[in-house]
Amino acid sequence: MTEFSVLVDPSAWWPGFERRLRAAYGAVGYPEAAAEFSVGRMRDGIAEWTVSEILSAGTRVGFVAVTMEADTPTGRIGDLWVDAAHAGQGHERAARSWAEGWCAGQGATRVAVRLVEPDGLFADYPVRGQLRMRAITAAATPLDGVTARPMTPAEYPGWLAAENAAFAADIVRSGAMTPDEARRKADNAYTELIPQGLDTEDHSILVLEHAGARIGTGWLKHRHLPGVTFGFSLEIDEEHRGKGYGRAAMAVGERATVEAGDAALMFNVFGGNEVAMSLYTSAGYPVVEETRSIDLPPGTGALP
């Protein structure tokens, strides 16, 4: 029988979790400095986590860690680990049920998990988002005559409104949030990310052109992680889609990454966007993290 005992002091859990996290980041190709930064950021946030031992006949066989996300009714499973000697004996499934019950007891209607490597235990949790990343060693050659220039102040308000609406719609389509939750998240995100608009430090907000005519836009944040540029969007305008410009837009992002002094480019793709997933795969951007979540059935109660 699997039992659970919440730890008052989680220090017995953290060193093993950190080792596993570092190993997973290394396996998927995170630059060393970016992995170190990500581990440190995780460490700073665990004060709000609840960590429980997983026990079998009084012997510790693993750990499960849970927390609640701020401002949404979403619980998160931060870690679920069973020692290899005790794997496959039902402890993993019991720990998942315990974690879902704990989240429900805190008022969660949804439970999410972030995976750095595949885990069949959460195969029935729908994919809500993926981080894709690859190393960029040299500035890409412009493809198909597509170039980029800085966005002008006159172009910025219309772009911002469209980006905000598209971001909220992507979140809703992925199933990660309700429309109201998604709108609030989008409003807060843009206020926090680009408070000075076009003058916000370390951001490139671009207009993509072909033969002197606009075909799309791009938005990248340099040094999002040490040595890593994050591509918030490289968007081809609707009337120009289907003409092969998607890969050319990514080449623009890769060139901007190198010119900013970063060594890797990362993108987020929302669940349900198979077109973008296929593009990133064909361009050599593997999945380095994946977020999955499930809605809890009504009446799910906290487990002891």
UniProtKB/TrEMBL annotation:
Occurrences of domain N-acetyltransferase (ranges): 146-304
Listed GO MF terms: acyltransferase activity
Enzyme class per UniProt: transferase
The organism's place on the tree of life at top rank: Bacteria
Keywords: Acyltransferase, Transferase
Record-listed E.C. numbers: 2.3.1.-
Protein name stated in the entry: GNAT family N-acetyltransferase
Organism: Streptomyces fildesensis
